[in-house]
Amino acid sequence: xxxxxxxxxxxxxxxxxxxxxxxxxxxxxxxxxxxxxxxxxxxxxxxxxxxxxxxxxxxxxxxxxxxxxxxxxxxxxxxxxxxxxxxxxxxxxxxxxxxxxxxxxxxxxxxxxxxxxxxxxxxxxxxxxxxxxxxxxxxxxxxxxxxxxxxxxxxxxxxxxxxxxxxxxxxxxxxxxxxxxxxxxxxxxxxxxxxxxxxxxxxxxxxxxxxxxxxxxxxxxxxxxxxxxxxxxxxxxxxxxxxxxxxxxxxxxxxxxxxxxxxxxxxxxxxxxxxxxxxxxxxxxxxxxxxxxxxxxxxxxxxxxxxxxxxxxxx
Length: 315
Ligand SMILES: Nc1ncnc2c1ncn2[C@@H]1O[C@H](COP(=O)(O)OP(=O)(O)OP(=O)(O)O)[C@@H](O)[C@H]1O
Ligand SMILES: [Mg+2]
Fold this sequence. Notes:
By secondary structure, this protein is of the alpha/beta class. Helix content is 39%, strand content 20%. The protein contains 10 helices and 10 strands. Helix 4 packs parallel to helix 6 and helix 6 runs parallel beside helix 7. It binds adenosine-5'-triphosphate and magnesium ion. Adenosine-5'-triphosphate binds next to helix 2.
């Protein structure tokens, strides 16, 4: 946790100050309660408003490692906003989001470092159309690898300069650097190829996304997120932009990830999939989680009237 006010401000906060985006500011309404160290993600009093419209209304919830949470509910109930608040793509108006115990709403936490561990897959794939498939997958890991290398080299340069002025006994040791730019690129490429082989698309490595089917593009968007070694995958209706015959291949891949133990939160209209894969189903309505439980209860014995009504329309 990062509540120690005496800590100096790290780079992240300085950058945030410059950012034109309005940042979340802690209010007295939501004192920080200790977060559950067992939870992978925890939200406390999560509230999001767009002007007068309250889209998320004081939600407190935990997601544990290994859980597969399906979020269902009518259009406009706040499902996407909830998902986007989990990795703070959307700044909460109020409340807190913790990921592995780090308060993502605390300006001293480097949000970019945390967000890397949360893979996000959107309805519209969001691949870079001007890059081939391989580049799409390796772009972020290479960028981050090179950034880290640069940081380590810069640190060593500082130590070396400092050492010029230090006595023999007081010289500081350099940070060991076991990689190189070439190695980072090669490793990212090998990893991307391994992931492409896994989904049977290794032969598409050098083609551009526009030449692929929707199902292929979405599977590539999924492995692109996996290339960052995420701790959790967030899916926002990953199959709703697909032609019906391509839905199966994408759901199959998500199901495989679930079976391998990946923690996931998936907003979906695929009730059969939610029933089969989810360990917990959340029903959202009017910005609240109105009812939740194991799929057998949510689908088999719903209690809430609005959930019953929703299921009667979608099942
Ligand atoms: N950037 C925004 N600015 C203003 N209003 C927004 C914004 N994003 C979402 N909303 C509003 O917030 C409400 C919830 O939107 P959200 O996208 O979270 O719903 P949803 O449950 O994902 O719906 P759907 O099933 O249609 O995807 C909607 O009324 C929407 O119009
Ligand atoms: Mg949505």
